[in-house]
Amino acid sequence: MTARRIFITGGASGLGRALSERYARDGWKVLIGDVNESRGRETAAALPALGGEGRFLRCDVSRLADLEAARIWLENHWGGVDIVVNNAGVAVGGSITQVPLRDWEWILDINLLGVVRGCRVFTPLFQRLGGGRFVNIASMAGLVHAPMMSAYNAAKAAVVALSETLSLELARDNIQVSLVCPAFFRTNLAENLRAAGPEVEETTRRLVTKSRHSAEEIADIVFRGVAAGDYLILTHPEGEALWMMKRLLPYSAYSWFLARGTARMMSRTPKAGSSEEPG
After folding, report:
1. Strand partners, 93
2. What is the DSSP string of 108-144?
3. 261 part of a folded domain
4. What is the pLDDT of residue 187?
5. DSSP element (H, E) containing 75
6. What share of the chain is helix, strand, coil (3-state, %, to 5)?
7. Of 15, 54, 137, 149, which has the fewest CB atoms closer than 10 Å, so is most exposed?
8. Which residues of the chain register pLDDT less than 50?
């Protein structure tokens, strides 16, 4: 049986690395695209021991040429690709008056337009191959929109809209789309966080580092959901419950519940200048 092929942006760390390792364990050929060359090469070098094949290409999803280079590499070396995972992402936190426009432009260029570029570059290849699948990594923030994260929420909500559109638009070409919406899990997203203030930064870091869920757990859920052909992959039961609440409750009740939960999370974060350790 010919080994299947997958390309993962942001594949050198966090969920991207966990997905690379999970697919390698199933015998896939994995091409990792990332801006961190040392991590990317290290991750790729570790995949053969897991049962797969690993390769690395430097890929900045804000550069169309980098994604086109990845497509050309896949065609020339592996004859194409079966799954493209648009995973690379960054985070911005702060209120609408705190977050500068340059940070809005930064996050939209990577989190939204990076997915757009990936889908635009690889759709013609999938059409020539007779099919394929995009796995677009969004977030529960694309479905449930907490305060102080407007830039991140807007970017991820746009990925949700894009994915739904493409799932209908590309179906006639046998191109499937999976949309992944995880809540907080232990990852290195905070490394690429631009926060407008120390309280927002500390809250985000605490939610990430103290989550009960690891990147490896989330990768396994994604792997199984994609294998089953699922469109929407919700990785956290608590996130799914909140989304269902949003859909079913009157907005006044839902917004009260979300505002209360957000205030409780922020209250656990020490004020700037405090010597208290975060709980």
Report:
1. 195
2. IIIIIHHHHHHHHHHHHHHHHHT-EEEEEE--GGGTS
3. no
4. 64
5. helix 64-78
6. 55, 15, 30
7. 149
8. 207, 268-279
The answer as to whether 197 is a domain residue is yes
Q: Using the CB atoms, write b or e for 24-63: b if 16+ within 10 Å.
A: beeebbbbbbbbbeebbbbbbeebeebebbbbbbbbbbee
54 domain residue, yes or no: yes
Which stretch of DSSP H or E encloses residue 219?
A: helix 215-227
Model pLDDT for residues 181-211, shown as the tens digit of each residue: 998 765 665 566 666 555 555 555 554 555 5
What's residue 154's pLDDT? 97
- The residue type found at 237 is P
The pair of structure tokens assigned to 273 is 């200048």
Instruction: Tokens for 14, please give them.
Output: 């966090």
Tell me if residue 152 is catalytic.
Answer: yes
CB 65 within 8 A of CB 90: no
Strand partners, 33: 9, 57
Q: What CATH number does the domain containing 193 carry?
A: 3.40.50.720
Provide the domain count of the chain: 1
What is the spatial distance between Cα 222 and Cα 235, in angstroms, rounded to a whole number?
8
CA gap 93, 100 in Å, rounded: 11
Phi and psi for 224 in degrees, rounded to 5? -70, -35
Residue 262 domain flag: no
Domain membership of residue 193 as a residue range: 5-236
pLDDT tens sequence across 71-121: 999 999 999 999 999 999 998 988 899 999 999 999 999 999 999 999 999
Of the residues 152, 231, 251, 254, which is catalytic? 152
Q: What are phi and psi of 94, to 5 degrees?
A: 145, 165
pLDDT score, position 3: 78
Report which DSSP code applies to 149: B
From 109, 128, 268, select the one nearest 192 (Cα to Cα). 109
